[in-house]
Amino acid sequence: MKIKYLKLDKAEGPLIIMDEVPDAIYGEIVDIEVSGNKHRTGQVIQIDKNKVIIQVFQGSSGISLDGVAVSFSGKPMQISLSHEILGRVFNGMGKPIDGAGEIYAHQDYNINGRPMNPVARLYPRNYIQTGISTIDGLLTLIRGQKLPIFSGDGLPHNQLAAQIVRQARISEEEAGNFAIVFAALGIKHDEADFFAKAFEEAGVMDWVTMFLNLADDPVMERIITPRCALTAAEYLAFECGREVLVIMTDMTSYCEALREISSAREEVPSRKGYPGYLYSDLASLYERAGMLKNTKGSITQIAILTMPNDDITHPIPDLTGYITEGQIVLDRSLYQLGIYPPINILPSLSRLMKDGIGKEFTREDHPDLANQVFSSYSKVQEIRALAQIIGEDELSEIDRKYMEFGRQLEEKFAKQDFEEYRNLNQTLDTMWKLIEILPEEELTRIDPVLVKKHLRK
Amino acid sequence: MDGKGKVIYINGPVVKAEHMADFKVREMVMVGEKKLIGEVISLEEEIGTIQVYEDTTGLRIAEEVYSTGKPLSLRLGPGIIGNIFDGIERPLSKIYAGGGQFIPEGIGLISLDEEKLWNTEITVKKGDLLKSGDVFAHIQETSLIIHKAMVPPGIKGKVIRIVDNGYYTIIDTILILLDEEGNNYELKLAQEWPVRQPRPVWQRMPLEKLLITGQRVIDTFFPLAKGGTAAIPGGFGTGKTITQHQLAKWSDADLIVYIGCGERGNEMTEVLEDFPKLKDHNTGNPLLDRTVLIANTSNMPVAAREASIYTGITIAEYFRDMGYNVALMADSTSRWAEALREISGRLEEMPAEEGYPAYLASRLAAFYERAGYCKNLNGTEGSISIIGAVSPAGGDFSEPVTKYTKRIVGTFLALDRELAHARHFPSINWLLSYSNYIPILSDWFSDKVASDLMEIRSKMMGILQEENKLMDIVKLVGEDVLPDDQRIILEIAKIIKVGYLQQNAFHPQDLYTILPNQYSMLKVIDKLYDRAYACIKEGIPLSQVKEEKLFSDISLMKYQISEEKPELFQKLIERINGYYDSLENRYKEGSTDED
Ligand SMILES: Nc1ncnc2c1ncn2[C@@H]1O[C@H](COP(=O)(O)OP(=O)(O)OP(=O)(O)O)[C@@H](O)[C@H]1O
Ligand SMILES: [Mg+2]
Q: How far apart are alpha carbons B400 and B355 in whole angstroms?
């Protein structure tokens, strides 16, 4: 029998403090029974002699100092996993909420995971065809990559993620071994419903595991949710051999929960009130993507975050970009022009693309062609700025060609229907069509041999 | 030395214990049942504060803290090269071989392989007098590196016993030294050294040699010196890691120490997968044979991140002492600074700027100070060049880590987000970057490359600066309104940028350019500029002066002229001369006709 402690020293915000606990374990999970047989869960986050600070995932409101019974589990936070988690829905703490009963499993898994040994990793090199031109052509997604979407309030990041799920599954489904793990972090009910519906329409519902912490769920549980999801993903990938796609949204809510804890602990903040360890904390999530040598399965991660004030230098997108293997940046002005998906290609990047495209993987002209499109489109931005001042009519002939290139790129290439699937050849051929608008001397990024072979063919 | 402390406080990587009066500051300790490795960072009366290099989850109050009696040290000996270690020199491949796909806590203090037999050639004999740093054995550690076993600093004496050539492990005694006080020292192929203490040298020497990188914008525009320091600051995705990888692959150092400090696991994996396959530019041997990797990825314990930098530099110093030129890359020093900040915060120290501790600047300086070109204790010369990546928050160079680093380093390679977005790589901004080594390297450049190289470089920089000014006007009114003698500047600047400064790390023909070819390329552009400009001054219109095919061939010469065919540069120059000679003639005839 575990001892129950019946008295708190202090309860404030997400923390409770207890005295006279002689043998607490750092990081262990505690059960807090609040009057009326309700239970809350907490975690030991600091021990100072007999004094223990506990973070309560459901917050301390309603807790009175002597109306509780706290018992220490001696264990870190764990979840039970088995193959049965596919097709199931859990709350943000990993408890089933779909009415289909508990998960019976032989093993419990520590949700904090452990760092993957770089020697054990397998460098990801196989691309995933998403059928979306901007992504396949310019920001190729690689199996095992962590490629987040940097979005803003009201932009169609959910649609984009849903489209990727629907269209990318095709080749994997044939192999019959894919899975999706979805973690909702403080999003609204209708957004979660949107995803559920999207999974259903894509016919993948039986292969989806959902962890939901919605906007009206306890904020602190959000710290646990992605860890449950990633532990499930690791299980499905590396123990069951599945190709797992993890979608986590919205990372901004997650970071805000972290900030709340940090300020409750009166830690010295770094930028914008976020804790100095935000980078390491985010890395402990994002780095749980990848592949392992001599082991089947992979974890591809698409985290979605909304940039506060659309500001990419805000600590959340900034630190994310420093950890992930690129980013897909959505742009409000493109969206206002009616372009879906409103991907701003210039600040977007897929770092693993370089090793997953080209002759052996996609097409030999792909790398140079993508480079050329990026470089020419950046020129378009300069010329547009000039045109704003002197008027388009005053532009030189070359500059006008660039303007046309920019327009067509947005209209014929970037813009794509939510239901539309374009294969890679179509996408690359469209890119050639686009650069044909420019004079040949401008094509300084493409090997002349390739120009000869592909241009105006 | 077997005092035991008792844990009384746990806060992430910071642990306090009581009953520690017998411990020393900076002593390495083992914490708790799992024997987590830690280091005492301060002592106050009986209470010691410990920074723990492994995850402390699961540690319980009142668990014991064990003394080791020595400071956090590395084992230095054969077996380092080609290996990958964590922040405190534990071999990750060995952990993997033991089933560690994921890294567990409490694996204890393992380092170099103690069982491996090394073919050892003894280079001294009985009766020889040896002093600190003297080499007593050679081991061909890899195809590229002869490992030289040295007498550790602080020890000297007469060889009273020595083994024959043969196969030995790093724990076998190779020789015994007897010093004047009558002390015996058993020397082995490996020695230990505390990571936080610089290894001694005979004297520091002036820097005068170029660290050749094969990267055009670096070698000829913002050069690095052997023994010098450089910083590469830049926002995310601007190319810090790729640049560091390029230097690790192609620079002419003898040995590379690459520290992945708080960065991505896959980037280390990439090096592990690629370097065995890539060939050293000079010898054709696999690059991994001259590379040491230290990996504390962003999700590994943060205290070990703080240590990883010192582990790396200590290894670098050890090989410098053998007489090698070592280049050390640290990606990213900002993550190291953040580790300092995090530990400092948990110690509740007074923060200075942006939460960083007040000693940030001095720690940074002390780290870069361990670079240098040195005469070693054993009389050989060796060097350590440090190239540190800096990841400024929000890409803003005025933040503390960038600001302090900038004060220290000799070469500053400022990466630029706009250039990176336009996929102009390396995205080194030519207006914000600088190298303080140009004056001291100018003799080297004159001797080894060409006496006018730096002169041409200045001229090219002048053109780029001029272009920058003109672009301010172009942005407002467009290019067409400029007079031809200014438009030609824009055209030449474009060639310098596209044809010279841009260098694609993934293009087989472009990833490396030998120095003579860098010089020839600049000569070609210089010739084009001189001849074209003269024609413009003669009144010949730009449309005639800018011969599309010629300009585009010069932009593409980096792809089209291979290392083996340097004579093609001469051909290009002849083509330039031919074209402008005839243009001038035509024009002169034309103007005489009109008379
Ligand atoms: N010399 C180069 N040639 C071609 N592409 C490059 C070059 N340098 C950088 N890139 C491109 O830029 C991308 C980002 O580079 P890199 O990973 O080095 O950025 P970083 O500055 O290290 O970013 P972070 O701070 O997030 O680690 C690469 O994946 C590659 O596509
Ligand atoms: Mg990097």
A: 10
Helix spans in A132-234 (H): 133, 157-175, 189-201, 225-234
Of A279, A389, A441, nearest to B548 by CB-CB distance is: A441
Q: What is the DSSP letter of A84?
A: G
Instruction: Please give the pLDDT value at position A134.
Output: 97
For residue B238, the CA-to-ligand 2 centroid distance in Å is 8
- For residue A48, what is the nearest residue in chain B, using CA coordinates? B9
In B142-219, the DSSP E strands lie at 146-150, 157-162, 166-168, 173-178, 184-188, 191-194, 203-205
**Element at A294 (helix H, strand E):** none
Chain mean position to CA B427: 18
Rounded Cα distance between A42 and A14, Å, is 9
Lowest mean pLDDT among A341-355, A368-382, B62-76, B98-112: B98-112
Contact between A314 and B228 (Cβ < 8 Å): no
**Mean pLDDT value of segment B343-360:** 90
Q: What are phi and psi for residue B428, nearest 5 degrees?
A: -75, 120
B227 pLDDT higher than 70: yes
CA distance B496 to chain A (A): 13
Between strands B255-261 and B73-76, the pairing is unpaired
Reduced to 3 states (helix: H, G, I; strand: E, B; else coil), residue A19 is: coil
CB contact residues (below 8 A), chain A span 280-339, against chain B: 280, 283-284, 287-288, 290, 292, 295, 313-315, 318, 321-323, 325-327
Coil/strand/helix, residue B14? strand
Cα-based angle A365, A369, A371 (whole degrees, multiple of 5): 130
Best of B216, B241, B396 for a ligand 1 pocket test (most atoms within 8 Å of beta carbon): B241
Question: How much distance in Å is there from the Cα of B237 to the middle of ligand 1?
Answer: 5
Residue numbers of chain A with a pLDDT score lower than 50: 1
Q: Residue range B98-112: average pLDDT? A: 88
CA-based nearest residue in chain A for residue B262? A280
Interface contact A25-B58, CB threshold 8 A: yes
List phi, psi (to 5°) of A372. -65, -45
Give per-residue pLDDT as tens, B378-405.
999 999 999 999 999 999 999 999 999 9
Domains and CATH numbers, chain A: 4-76 (2.40.10.170), 79-355 (3.40.50.12240), 366-454 (no CATH)
Atom 7 (ligand 1): residue with closest C-alpha? B425
Question: Beta B47-52 vs B372-375: how paired, if at all?
Answer: unpaired
Angle CA B486–B489–B492, to nearest 5 = 155
Q: What is the DSSP letter of B164?
A: P
CA of B252 to the centre of ligand 2 (A): 22
CB within 8 Å of A1: residues ≥ 6 apart: none
Cα–Cα distance, A256 to A259 (Å, whole number):
5
Instruction: Identify the CA nearest to A28 among candidates A79, A77, A91, A80.
Output: A77
Which are the contacts of B412, defined by CB distance < 8 A and separation ≥ 6? B222, B230, B231, B233, B406, B432, B433, B434, B435
Whole-angstrom distance, CA of residue B61 vs CA of residue B556? 67
pLDDT, tens digit, 9 for 90 and up, residues A157-207: 999 999 998 888 655 555 578 899 999 999 999 999 999 999 998 888 899
Please give the full DSSP string across B312-340, using - where no structure is assigned: HHHHHHHHHHTT-EEEEEEETHHHHHHHH
- How would you classify the pairing of strands B27-31 and B36-44? antiparallel
Average pLDDT over residues B267-296: 90
pLDDT digits (tens, 9 = 90+) for A74-116: 999 999 999 999 999 999 999 999 998 898 888 899 999 999 9
Residues in A closer than 8 angstroms to B560, CB to CB, are 448
